[in-house]
Design brief:
The chain has 489 residues and is α/β, with parallel strands linked by helices. It has helices at 5-8, 21-33, 50-62, 76-82, 100-110, 132-143, 163-166, 179-192, 199-209, 213-224, 233-240, 245-256, 260-273, 277-297, 308-320, 323-339, 348-359, 374-381, 403-407, 414-422, 424-435, 437-443, 464-470, 476-487; strands spanning 39-43, 89-93, 120-125, 149-155, 170-173, 196-197, 230-231, 367-369, 448-451, 456-459. The protein is 53% helix and 9% strand. The radius of gyration is 30 Å and the shape is elongated.
């Protein structure tokens, strides 16, 4: 029976651990200087090498080779650990052995000297699953272990581990492995297995793994099982339910251009072709996230795991969209992913998300106070006749203190509203200078304005993020002052 690739290609030396040089280098220096701690805590996302590194450290501590060559993977001790038959290496799964009795049994055996090697090594995986009483039972042993014993605790959720336990360990945080490094390692594995692979296919696998090497190797194993001698982008797309990258770019481009019809046509084609709408939504969110990064930093180097042509298209979209729209789109399409559960019209959540981002929800837009006397105007029923692309503000419910205003509608100044809207970009430039870039970016989301003698109403559609930003007590007065100065009134 064949061995799964992720087991066959498990790292056996510090040099084979991918993407965790900050950990392996420190451990190698500690081994060289004879400063190995009695307890370590390896924390980080799954599939990033925590358990593999723990086993390599166990080998190095018990290897019989010269100091600079440990672990050698040739001596009987190294081979026993590799084959899983080293009796002095005790691996415990805390998810199924998490009671205080399990830890007491461990504590009773700690005092016995190792049978084969120099050290007895305890690797406790998913240690955060231990009960509170089990942690208390382990605490004393961690604090004063026998000189021949070493503990290595591994977890994906270090925040669940008591501080008293963490303080008795040397902690190493494993990071998500960058996609280019995963792709490079996958290419090496494919070559050693006698296969070739398209670079874009490997990079797509790496990005889909989201920093988890184990997931990436498992997916590569699936690709190699297709029967062909070359891993292609078409195979990867079929396995992932992924959509052509250009379709995602075009969809985000439709959002940036506010072309709902174009976006709906793309969704229809994907549905007809049988593509995975869930995977497509994930890719859309990933693309929007990249656009957001460019808008905030203007640094394409942060997207080095993407093709240069794709980054250029994203830069164009970053210039087309304002930041609040991008943020709202990320939020809305992330929600749509959870709503894609099938049903009579499985594409409907995605279509609704698109329309709400491009045109705004059909619900009443939020009105934000721009000057102090605005409350009376809002309760009086501020409205304006505008075209369909810019729906008029809908008044909020009147309050008891504004009963008089309700019966006496405030006259609108349509001409001033028109002038303000026509010079909106000029006003945003003033806001950027006087109030900062963040306020100016939020005001780009305004969909309509209404003006009375003493008040201005701003409608943000469904964009609560931008509305709430402008409504902050430390932002609103400055925005209102900038507006007064702009109009000289």
């Amino acid at each position: 029976m064949s061995t799964a690739l992720y087991r066959k290609w498990r790292s056996q030396t510090f040099g084979e651990v991918v993407g965790q040089e900050h950990v392996t280098r420190t451990l190698q220096n500690a081994l060289r200087d004879g400063r190995v701690a009695h307890a370590y805590l390896f924390s980080g996302p799954r599939g990033t090498g925590k358990t593999s590194t723990a086993r390599i450290l166990a080998k190095a501590l018990n290897c019989s080779a010269p100091e600079g060559e440990r672990p050698c993977n040739q001596c009987p001790t190294c081979q026993a650990i590799t084959e899983g038959r080293m009796i002095d290496l005790i691996e415990i799964d805390a998810a199924s052995n998490n009671s205080v009795d399990d830890v007491r049994e461990l504590r009773d055996k700690v005092g016995f000297r190792p049978s084969e090697g120099r050290f007895k090594i305890y690797i406790i995986d998913e240690v955060h699953m231990l009960s509170g009483s089990a942690f208390n039972a382990l605490l004393k042993t961690l604090e004063e272990p026998p000189p021949h014993t070493r503990f290595i605790l591994a977890t994906t959720e270090p925040h669940k581990i008591p501080a008293t336990v963490i303080s008795r360990c040397q902690r190493f945080d494993f990071r998500r492995i960058p996609a280019p490094e995963i792709a490079e390692h996958l290419n090496h594995i494919a070559g050693e297995e006698g296969f070739s692979a398209e670079s874009d296919a490997l990079l797509t696998i790496a990005r889909n793994a989201q920093g988890c090497m184990r997931d990436a190797i498992s997916l590569l194993d699936q690709m190699l099982s297709f029967g062909a001698d070359r891993v292609t982008m078409a195979q990867v797309k079929q396995a992932l339910g992924a959509v052509n990258t250009q379709a995602v770019v075009d969809f985000v481009g439709a959002i940036a251009a506010r072309e709902a019809g174009q976006g709906l046509a793309l969704i229809h084609k994907l549905t007809t072709d049988g593509a995975s709408l869930t995977e497509f939504s994930h890719q859309v969110v990933e693309q929007l996230r990249a656009v957001m990064v460019l808008q905030m930093t203007n640094d394409p180097a942060l997207l080095d795991d993407l093709p240069a042509e794709t980054v250029q298209q994203m830069q164009q979209q970053a210039r087309q969209m304002d930041l609040p729209t991008t943020l709202y789109a990320i939020k809305r399409f992330s929600t749509a992913v959870n709503e894609l559960k099938g049903g009579f019209q499985p594409q409907l959540p995605l279509e609704m998300a698109l329309i709400e981002v491009v045109q705004g929800e059909a619900a009443a837009p939020t009105i934000v106070t721009a000057t102090a006397p605005y409350a009376a105007a809002r309760s009086a029923g501020v409205s304006a006749s505008q075209d369909a692309a810019k729906p008029a503000p809908i008044p909020s419910a009147p309050t008891a203190t504004n009963a008089t205003a309700k019966s006496e509608p405030v006259a609108l100044d349509a001409e001033t509203a028109r002038r303000l809207w026509s010079r909106w970009k000029e006003y945003l430039a003033v806001v950027k200078t006087q109030c900062g870039q963040q306020a100016a970016a939020a005001l780009q989301a305004v969909r309509d304005v209404a003006v009375t003698d003493h008040a201005v109403a701003l409608a943000f559609g469904s964009n609560e993020f931008s509305r709430n930003l402008i409504a902050k007590p430390d932002v609103l007065p400055d925005v209102a002052a900038a507006l007064s100065k702009f109009f000289g009134t």
